[in-house]
Amino acid sequence: MNWLTLESISDLEQIIESSFKLDKGIAIFKHSTRCSISSMAKSRLSSKWSFTNDLPIYYLDLIQFRDVSNAIAQKFNIEHQSPQLLLIKDGVCIYNASHLSISVSEIEEL
Predict the structure, then answer these.
(1) What is the DSSP letter of 19?
(2) Whole-model pTM above 0.70?
(3) Which fold is adopted by the domain 3-109?
(4) Share above pLDDT 70 across residues of the chain, in percent, rounded to a whole number
(5) Phi and psi at residue 84, in whole multiples of 5°?
(6) Any residues with CB less than 8 A from the CB of 15 and at least 6 apart, and which?
(7) Which residues contact 88 (CB under 8 A, 6 or more apart)?
(8) H/E element holding 40?
(9) Strand, helix or coil at 53?
(10) DSSP one-letter string for 56-74
């Protein structure tokens, strides 16, 4: 799994722009480094991730970059959760799941 880092509002803006160019879109995983459930969700996601370069995935340490997490919630009109996986396609959040509801198989079906 090739985690890309999301650390700024400009990174988020670039992700949104890029989401128009990729067939499957772009995934964002919001992770709390202080939460054991978040660590478990990250591990499960890593072990089941079946995508290669056709679905890039960005990692956001929301403790360190809470302003970016807040911008994501505002931009896509979604409630902040941690852990949380979002799929952005054509500038819109088409998948949003948190905690143990995060499902790679659901993303594969989109």
Answers:
(1) T
(2) yes
(3) Glutaredoxin (3.40.30)
(4) 98
(5) -150, 140
(6) 6, 26, 28, 58, 88
(7) 15, 16, 19, 25, 26, 27, 28, 76, 94
(8) helix 36-48
(9) coil
(10) -EEEEETTTTHHHHHHHHH
pLDDT in tens, 38-78: 998 898 888 888 786 679 999 999 999 999 999 999 999 99
Pick from 109, 99, 110: which is nearest to 45 by CA?
Answer: 99
pLDDT at residue 106 is higher than 90: no
Q: Which two tokens stand for residue 56?
A: 């890039």
d(CA 6, CA 57): 10
If you average pLDDT over every residue of the chain, what do you get?
91
- Residue 47 neighbours by CB under 8 Å, 6+ apart: none
Q: Report which DSSP code applies to 101.
A: G
